[in-house]
Records
---
Amino acid sequence: MKTQSATYDPKAKTKFSTSHRKENGGFHAEYAAIVPDNYEHNHSKCRNPVTLRLYWPGTVCYACLWVGGKVEGEEIYTSGSGNAGGGGYCKASTAAGEAIRNAGFKLERRIDGVGESAIEEAVLAIAAAVGYPDAMLHVSHA
């Protein structure tokens, strides 16, 4: 299977709603791209240029995405959020797909409704798009 790829549109209108953050009683999972960061006092540390969090406080799944890196030599910092309700499909990947689009990214293949493994591929694709092609994925669940 071909891996996912992502592109960033610096002219895209981003959309982030703080009401989608549900830390108090709604955290479901976090997908983070992890890379080495050796800047401070020669001590090896890690940073995460891409963080996608899912919140599921009830019947609606919320996603928030934060991205920092470089595209074509320019530093970018962007964020986006999304949500998905209803039933009969994977709400987590649908909310994540909306957050990714709302942060200004376009994926080669849409991930909406296809399962959480698609979220993992998307996070790594976004990391590669912002200058971190060798990022590792860290996933944590509530």
---
Amino acid sequence: MEWTPIVDCAYDAVITVGACTTTCAVVVQLKDFAGNDLAVKGMVGIYLSSDAAGLTKDNIDNIAAGTDGNVWELLADNYYMACSEADGDIDLTCTEAADTNVYLNVVLPNGKIVTSTILDFTG
């Protein structure tokens, strides 16, 4: 049996973290199976961790949608779902107190977890 990729599904993500004070802008670009920007809306899970491996969950409840896409808090201070724009782009704004370091983790439909570089809230 030959494997056929599901077209129009997020297979990967690129996470870009902006400068952080008590607010940090984060852009998630969803990618298709060929590595191109997703050309449709996509839905992913999001959580924050205190470690780069994404294994230690962090309780921050201040994740909001930016100008592209939308985000919903499913489990208070724990887990979110985000929907991209039709170009696979999700803009997020994370807010936290100074001297906090976390990582944004994106859970893709195929089960893969993509972890950002550090969100270093300097205040």
---
Amino acid sequence: MPRDSALTSSDVRGSTLTIVCAPGTGRYAVARLLEQHVDARLTDLLGMLAACPKAGSPGVYDRCEETYEGLAAV
């Protein structure tokens, strides 16, 4: 169940989580994410996993546009 209105990795219904970013796409096994990051918020995981050089950009228009693809959550 979401805590503080945020979805966590245990809320994901599928077996994989896909992140899409301009440099590429990454797929992650949800079970492994739970092992490594316990029950992290998906918003926090996105920044950690995308590893985009633009993720920490101070410019609003130069930031990475990483997102989850086909997220099936509760």
---
Amino acid sequence: MRTQAQNNYYWKCIVKVLGDDLGYFQFEMHNILKKQFTPIATSEMNKQEFNQYCERIRIWAITDLGIVIPPPNKTK
């Protein structure tokens, strides 16, 4: 299961940033990301799977949208 730090990073640095930039509420953005990047519920992912999920989203955000999301070790 993912850690609280991973969960905080996901909601504050990924979902919120993308949702704000793209005009979605956080819950809507979360559902869009789940649908696009994983066939399983994020709550079922282990730490490594969740890290990979977040990294795929970060790469997509910068490559396709031009939105920079800092890696977890660069946030506070």
